Amino acid sequence: MRYFSTDPIDNFEGSSLFLKRLVEQDVKENPVMIYMKGVPEFPYCGFSSLALRLLRQYNVPISARNIFEDPEIIHAIRDHSSWPTFPQIFINGEFIGGSDIILNMHLNGELKEKLKDITVSEESK
Amino acid sequence: MDDWSWRKCVGPTNEFHWSSMNAVGSGVEIVLGFRLPMASRGANAIVSRAIRMETKLKSVLEASVLEIEDVSHQHAGHAAVKGSEGESHFNVRIVSPNFDGQNLVKRHRMVYDALGDELESGLHALSIVAKTPQEVAENK
Fold it and tell me: Pairing relation of β-strands B65-70 and A88-91?
């Protein structure tokens, strides 16, 4: 489980571009990326907690970022996914949805299929 | 205060209002006297958002079944983080023929699109069950 911390950035020119790039990088470099309310050890919302709990059942490396750390990143993520609420889950760069959709995919087997080629690397074990 | 908004609403919040109102046989101002001002404002905000959501979803998505449940109290720890007044988390169960042929992500996007104004004004989270009339008939 990797957890990224976003330092709040002063509103200097270009910070929104920085956050846009950050989100693109998150999603590209992390096979399973979750933008959540709170940190993995202490989810701040039941929906984020549920999504994380489901993903953890698959023994895949999960990367997470707390959207409350820098309010500006919320806009960057929303712009990227065109999805208004959190959590948001990306698998292999593809936007998957929020907790309802993850739960649905968990129950019907689609999530297992999506995650089947993702293995736990030595680094994140 | 918008009298009509809370008169029309259903659910536990409104039942409280009604029973209080019947007990004292008086109007809104008396009812408010039973509650802390902050709690009253929060309750009425919930009522009006639920009704706005219902109106928008019914008209935009031609919903044949629409259930909206306020679950903000379950998220009280962070409901006020962004300045909303507690009307932040809802469960929505909606049946619409417009969902036919659309996957879950698209269905959820249709609901979010219909509620754009609400999401801009403090609605944080929706738990959405979105089905077509046919899926309901087949009990999917």
Answer: unpaired
Q: Is A45 annotated as a binding residue?
A: yes
Measured CA to CA, the distance from residue B51 to residue B37 in angstroms comes to 22
| pLDDT (mean) for B57-67 | 93
Domains of chain A: 2-115 (3.40.30.10)
A85, A97, A99: residue with CB nearest B124: A85
DSSP string, B27-66: -HHHHHTTS-HHHHHHHHHHHHHHHHHHHHHHHHH--SEE
Using a 10 angstrom Cβ sphere, with 0-12 exposed, 13-18 middle and 19 or more buried, the burial of residue B36 is exposed
**Residue range B96-102: average pLDDT?**
96
Q: Which chain A positions have a beta carbon within 8 Å of B126's beta carbon?
A: 85
| C-beta atoms surrounding A111 within 10 Å | 22
Convert the pLDDT of each residue in A5-24 to its tens digit.
776 555 454 578 889 999 99
Predicted local distance difference test score (pLDDT) of residue B27:
31
Option in B78, B104, B119 nearest A45 (CB): B78
Q: Which residue has the tokens 């009704």?
A: B51
A87 prior amide bond cis, ω within 30: yes
Which chain A residue has its CA at the smallest distance from B112's CA?
Answer: A84
Query: CATH number of the domain at B3-137, please?
Result: 3.30.300.90
Of the ranges A100-109, B83-92, B117-126, the best mean pLDDT one:
A100-109
Q: Indicate whether this complex's ipTM tops 0.85.
A: no
Residue B108 at interface with chain A, using a CB cutoff of 8 Å: yes
B126 part of contact set with chain A, CB < 8 Å: yes
Q: Would you tell me how many other CB atoms lie within 10 Å of the CB of residue B98?
A: 15
